[in-house]
Design a protein that fits this description.
5% of the residues lie in helices and 44% in strands. By secondary structure, it is mostly beta strands. The chain has one domain: Distorted Sandwich (Beta-galactosidase, Chain A, domain 5), CATH 2.70.98. A 9-stranded antiparallel sheet has the order 8-9-10-11-21-17-16-14-15. A 4-stranded antiparallel sheet has the order 4-13-19-18, with no helix packed on it.
Length: 282
């Protein structure tokens, strides 16, 4: 996978923390899309990865959905009921048609067009990204409003018959195996995966990511979580059944994630307390 040169950079206090890259030369079977990469802590520890050996179509932080009316914007193989993962000619692409960057590097606004292989525009999206210092680290606010241009349904491998594989959404792909993961009601991948906890903590070597879904309990989607050999996670909009969208109907997806440096030997994080502060920090 090859990404274009950075189209814009998010900065916190003059420090570059996230680079927006367009689809560039991403292979068609990777479902080309805009992503943030590299993304780092304030001290420069990487928290994103692209084209890992296990999933070459994974890329940084972006919006990846595996089944939008039969089109994959996740990349790779599609799970076909009663057949299994199958490479199909169903890969869409997301193109940035407008980009506005704040002069100080604190925010970006993208207009993104989602196009199916046959040229049908399925979705128009407005994506806003913001970066700011907070709670000893920095916060990435990621909000997308997707407006269906034609009637469609959103699915996942789980809705197509693969139990537990309900991935898709605002995806974070990290370069490390998680050294710890927790949600409000427990610790470990088994507790986190499928949880509707308002927050998710993922820790790795030298770093901690505390992600929450703003908007109150009704806005919380189940977390899809994998902790190794490389951690990745997202709130998932299509878990047990397909999600219909009428033409003109909009779906809002949002995360707020605290990115912290975690030197070895530090005291355990008060994830619940940080999440409460993060949730009320405008």
């Amino acid at each position: 996978m090859v990404l274009t040169a950075p189209a814009a950079v998010l900065r916190v206090g003059g420090t570059a923390v996230a680079h927006l890259r367009g689809p560039g030369a991403m292979a068609p079977e990777h479902s080309p899309r805009p992503v943030l990469h590299p993304v780092t802590t304030l001290r420069g520890v990487a928290v994103t990865e692209v084209a890992p050996q296990d999933h070459a179509h994974h890329a940084g932080i972006g919006l990846a959905l595996p089944d939008v009316g039969g089109t994959t914007y996740w990349g790779g193989r599609t799970y076909v009921r009663d057949v299994g993962p199958t490479m199909l000619a169903n890969h869409g692409r997301q193109d940035v048609v407008a980009l506005r960057a704040d002069p100080d590097g604190g925010s970006l606004r993208l207009e993104v067009v989602w196009t199916a292989p046959d040229g049908t525009v399925q979705v128009r999206e407005v994506r806003t990204l913001g970066a700011r210092a907070a709670l000893g680290g920095w916060v990435l606010d990621h909000a997308s409003v997707l407006e269906a241009q034609v009637p469609l349904t959103l699915g996942s491998p789980a809705t197509n018959g693969r139990a537990g594989a309900f991935y898709g959404g605002l995806l974070w792909r990290t370069p490390f195996a998680a050294t710890g993961v927790a949600v409000a009601d427990g610790a470990g991948e088994a507790a986190a995966h499928g949880s509707t906890s308002p927050w998710l903590l993922v820790e790795g070597p030298g770093v901690a990511l505390l992600s929450l879904q703003p908007g109150g309990p009704d806005a919380v989607l189940p977390w899809f979580v994998r902790t190794g050999p490389h951690a990745y996670f997202c709130p998932a909009p299509a878990v047990a059944r397909r999600r219909p969208l009428a033409a003109g109907e909009a779906l809002a997806l949002r995360t707020r994630t605290l990115v912290l440096d975690r030197p070895a030997g530090g005291a355990p994080l008060d994830a619940a307390g940080l999440a409460e502060a993060l949730g009320t920090d405008a």
